[in-house]
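Problem: given the chain below (139 residues), write out its structure.
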Amino acid sequence: MEDHIIPILMFGIPGLILLIGGINGLIKNSIIKKNGIKTIATIIDRKLYTEKDLEYGDRTSTYPVVQFRDTSGNTIIQELDQGDGSYMVGQRLSIIYLKRNREYEIVTNSKLFLVRFPLGMLIIGLIILSVIGYFIAIN
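Solution.
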């Protein structure tokens, strides 16, 4: 069993992170969907971030910057937490926002980001942890 600790930790920790991240995403998105306000935002910019990756080379991620008006008539400009390369400047996007204190939590009003992505993380985390559990049980 002791010689299996490193593989268990190598896969168990990412599996646990995916599981917790999926649960957290589902809870957070459900609160925003239930209590938030739906509106249309316009993408006014795209922020590019480059991540250094020794194995695969540099990777660039694109996050849209949106502008919308809240219920008080204030113009809000904020970068979304999720992004892919498909968003174009000038594109209109359905969002749900929730104002907490002075900050806005914004999610796109799509099943992909509200449900499918966090649920996918949760399922992958469960699969990884199940395989580890099975591996421990048979050894």
